[in-house]
């Protein structure tokens, strides 16, 4: 399994059987490396409708006919935008496809489409790969206690967690989120992209050190790949 970070909340995942997944495809974000894999992907996941998460989804999914998985309201928007292959879901649901399982889970955040209309609820994704390995990308969110429930129920080994603050959790909240979810590995995201995102990896590690349960903090530089 491979995880590649493209900056902000954008990750490429290659499953054990070679399925390619892109999450929150803002591949032109200010931190994005010069070399970004633009596809074809098997699946693109969208956590919510804000521009820094929808990113270049329409272009990417039309060019290579990629299946885009998102909440119903975003799916409807994508259909109208000419994306040929979409799957709408809603919170609490699971979608099994080609030995992968995508589960849509809650996030505490707003979600509006580029035209300002309602983009459905913001969400996160729990992804189970062919070998049973489970990942949890929280999307943009504040801290919420039900993260404990998500941790207990799905036992994600790797969690992608925002730490930038201002629009999302900051280091203090993200450390508590780790205590609730109990992953083996946490990968910080949604930080450093703009000056308003003030949360840092150093502060996150310091906040984590206050807990008895401390996951491995995996810092991926944009463009960097982690092999698991
Ligand atoms: Ni957002
Ligand atoms: Mn965001």
Would you write up a description of this structure?
This protein is an alpha/beta fold. The protein has a single domain, classed as Metallo-beta-lactamase, Chain A (4-Layer Sandwich), CATH 3.60.15.10. Helices cover 21% and strands 26% of the residues. The protein has six helices and 14 strands. The protein has helices at 51-54, 57-63, 72-80, 147-154, 171-181, 201-208; strands spanning 2-5, 11-14, 20-23, 43-45, 67-71, 86-89, 94-97, 100-106, 123-128, 134-137, 158-162, 185-189, 216-217, 225-227. A seven-stranded mixed β-sheet has the order 6-5-4-3-2-1-14, covered by helices on one side. It has a seven-stranded mixed β-sheet with strand order 7-8-9-10-11-12-13, covered by helices on one side. Helix 5 (171-181) crosses helix 6. The longest helix has 11 residues, at 171-181. Residues 50, 52-53, 140, 167, 190 line the site of manganese (II) ion. Nickel (II) ion (NI) is lined by residues 48, 50, 53, 109, 140, 167.
Spatial strand arrangement across the major sheet: 6-5-4-3-2-1-14
Q: From the alpha-carbon coordinates, what is the Rg to the nearest angstrom?
A: 16 Å
What's the CATH H-level homologous superfamily?
Answer: Ribonuclease Z/Hydroxyacylglutathione hydrolase-like
Q: Major sheet, described briefly?
A: 7 strands, mixed
Beta-strand residue fraction: 25-35%
């Amino acid at each position: 399994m491979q995880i590649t970070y493209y900056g902000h909340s954008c990750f490429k995942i290659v499953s054990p059987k070679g399925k390619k997944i892109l999450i929150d495809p803002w591949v032109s974000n200010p931190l994005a490396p010069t070399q970004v894999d633009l596809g074809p992907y098997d699946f693109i996941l969208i956590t919510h409708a804000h521009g820094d998460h929808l990113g270049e989804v329409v272009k990417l999914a039309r060019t290579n006919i990629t299946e885009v998985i998102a909440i119903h309201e975003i799916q409807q928007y994508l259909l109208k935008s000419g994306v040929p292959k979409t799957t709408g879901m809603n919170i609490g649901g699971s979608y099994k496809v080609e030995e992968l399982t995508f589960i849509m889970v809650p996030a505490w955040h707003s979600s509006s489409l580029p035209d300002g209309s309602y983009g459905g609820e913001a969400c996160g994704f729990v992804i189970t790969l062919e070998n049973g390995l489970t990942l949890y990308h929280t999307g943009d969110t504040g801290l919420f206690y039900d993260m404990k429930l998500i941790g207990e129920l799905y036992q994600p080994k790797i969690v992608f967690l925002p730490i930038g603050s201002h629009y999302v959790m900051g280091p203090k909240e993200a450390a508590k989120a780790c205590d609730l979810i109990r992953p083996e590995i946490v990968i910080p995201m949604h930080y450093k992209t703009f000056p308003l995102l003030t949360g840092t990896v150093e502060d996150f590690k310091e906040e984590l050190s206050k807990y008895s349960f401390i996951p491995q903090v995996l810092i991926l530089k944009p463009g960097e790949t982690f092999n698991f």
